[in-house]
Design goal:
The structure is a homodimer.
Chain A lengths: L4 H8 L3 H8 L7 H14 L5 H8 L3 E8 L4 H15 L1 H4 L1 E8 L4 H14 L3 E4 L5 H12 L4 E4 L10 E3 L3 H16 L4 E7 L5 H17 L3 E3 L3 E2 L4 H14 L3 E6 L4 H11 L6 E5 L3 H8 L5 E4 L2 H17 L5 H4 L4 E3 L6
Parallel strand pairs in A: 1-2, 1-3, 3-4, 4-5, 6-7, 6-8, 6-9, 9-10, 10-11
Antiparallel strand pairs in A: 11-12
Chain B binds a DNA duplex through helix 2 and helix 4.
DNA sequence: TCAATTTTGATGTACGTAAATCAAAAAATC
DNA sequence: GATTTTTTGATTTACGTACATCAAAATTGA
């Protein structure tokens, strides 16, 4: 049987109350006594029964998710996954609330974070906007003891405990290699459709993409980035325009959202040519396009995994427990038409 | 606050003892009374606090993993992950034991399963050997109330509750499309290295591979399968021989283990030609080969995820709780040199 | 040495559920 | 109506921990 607090009390030759004081770092224990208890804990290999402790404390985990108010299908999916998590809340002792902040607005994000500091949630998950003032606020909250994980978009260099999202540079590099290899010996131009270069994920994907293209596929030239604002209409216009103007385009990399517009443009303008297309995010639209060969590969991050991982990590941090790193690594999914879920 | 047993007792106008009898399906409750309690449960939205229940019961989850006694790096990795899970056992209330059975030996597997029926574990995870007698035994155990999940290798058509492994037909199809697309317009022959055609996973991968090759890449001809028994030495011999004999080989698909031998053969015999190579399972050897361009892509199943998923599912089934399907789906990882973990 | 202070022990209650016992009530049987 | 059987209630203990209270002991300072 696993040792209990009673066992360590007996082993250390102290009372239950003293063990409790040590375990919960309450005051009023002499240094030598504390050490006795601590060695007993170590020697017996005592592990606190978190379930019993939570029961005794009546503990719940008030968590806050801070999301940008942008309405593309990825964010809708992310929202849906959070709602699923809210449904599971009673069983998981969580108490999840979401807050929307206007997208790409560091000041608004900082304001929300400041407000949260007062209501004392036991964990914060946030889609980070990359700005110095956000970093400073996050660092301050972390130092004040709040567990914070970034979601989907990281805040590199900050003290956030964890990042629940994919490595976007690796994603861009992977897209480049897939595109390059699929095109083989063909030469020509590559159109890149992004949401906005103000978004860190998109910048990073592009950075990885251009790096591999330059290193390994010198016969393929990257055209100036089309910024579609993650909007299907704008994406359609931009891609259709590019295809009409430039007959040398042999491949397309869509690293943001708004792929419905991309697909429409491809079906209208590229019936007569063989384009190789890599897009991000598996949605109903991209899935259909992958199946009918309009798109050749889809890179995806699983929003459900990201949300569940964020919750697991926040709970673990709140309890001071370790996390299983391999379990919490968010993987880049590569979908061809053969391995769709 | 969540309702407790006290609340439903009050709401149903019965005593705590009766609620307990209903909840734990103990006898001695009249039909009408049972219904009163059940409607109270539904109306108050009562959810049993599993943590408190487990505490009261002193519950642990004795689980058994049945693994084939084969010593390739994948099985070693799987074993290592189970040992990790055993380390986490105290925190998860699990009590995990592994049993090795000689590989591809249905009779031995059946024998072990029969033996398990007597010791009453609360869940069984098994790497299945696909045979009618195994299926029959599994079905009998499932009907007797044992939660059973198959691991890595499935037992289709059986009553097993869950399969913690990848879709191997999809894996083969994906490999074929990657190989076909990477080769582009090139024509030639494809060498296929398998472990053994007696193993279901390998048969399925080959099935998916040949299907897509036939449908979509008619210019690539698949050579007779080389069966390397998952042994590096045999694999080396077979691949080296094939490369020496046949100058028309443009691609290799290695769908089993023993890739160390494959890599050695490639480095010896294919320095002068450009082969496209797809292999399964990320190990130190395949990882190094991917980085130095000897291998072009690696398909992988994450043994850690498989083990953790099997445990989660078995625990859930033992408690009669639902599982999150999306969370338990084991994904086929595709690694290029750019997205290695 | 006495008083003041700090440290420790003893004890009880609580969390939500399981499981057992025994008495009381209700229903079914004769 | 009396008897047996079934159903229900009331109550207690337990799981492992948290937390509070009050008394007792040990330590410190004067």
């Amino acid at each position: 049987m696993r040792p209990t607090v009673h066992d360590i009390a007996a082993a250390a030759g102290v009372s239950l109350a003293t063990v409790d004081r040590v375990l919960n770092q309450r005051p009023g224990v002499r240094h030598v006594t504390r050490e006795k208890v601590e060695t007993a804990i170590r020697e017996l290999g005592y592990i606190r029964d978190v379930a019993a402790a939570n029961l005794a404390k009546g503990r719940t985990y008030p968590l806050v998710f801070i999301l940008p108010a942008s309405d593309n299908s990825f964010m809708h999916g992310l929202n849906a996954e959070i709602r699923q998590a809210i449904v599971r809340s009673p069983a998981e002792r969580t108490n999840i609330r979401t807050i929307e902040v206007s997208a790409f607005d560091p000041a608004a994000l900082v304001c929300v974070l400041e407000g949260l500091a007062r209501e004392k949630p036991c964990g914060i998950a946030m889609v980070a906007t990359d700005a110095p003032e956000v970093r400073a606020t996050v660092d301050r909250l972390v130092r004040a003891g709040f567990p914070i994980v970034t979601l989907v978009s990281d805040l590199t260099g900050s003290l956030r405990h964890h990042y629940a999202g994919v490595d976007n540079i690796a994603a861009g590099r992977t897209a480049a290699r897939l595109l390059g290899r699929f095109l083989g010996p063909r030469k020509g131009e590559i159109a890149v459709l992004a949401g906005s270069m103000l978004v860190r994920d998109h910048r990073e994907r592009l950075e990885g993409f251009t790096a591999v293209m330059a290193e390994e596929f010198p016969d393929l030239a990257i055209l100036p980035v089309l910024e579609g604002r993650d909007d299907p209409e704008i994406a359609h216009m931009l891609v259709a325009g590019a295809l009409a103007r430039n007959a040398g385009i042999v491949g397309v990399y869509s690293l943001g959202a708004g792929n419905r517009g991309l697909v429409r443009a491809l079906k209208e303008k590229a019936v007569d040519r063989t384009l190789t297309v890599i897009a991000h995010e598996l949605t109903t639209h991209t899935r259909a396009a992958l199946i009918d060969n309009t798109i050749d590969a889809i890179l995806n991050q699983d929003a459900g995994h990201e949300v569940r991982s964020a919750i697991r990590v926040l709970k673990a941090k709140a309890d001071g427990l370790p996390v299983i790193d391999a379990q919490e690594r968010i993987r880049l999914d590569i979908f061809l038409k053969d391995n769709l879920p």
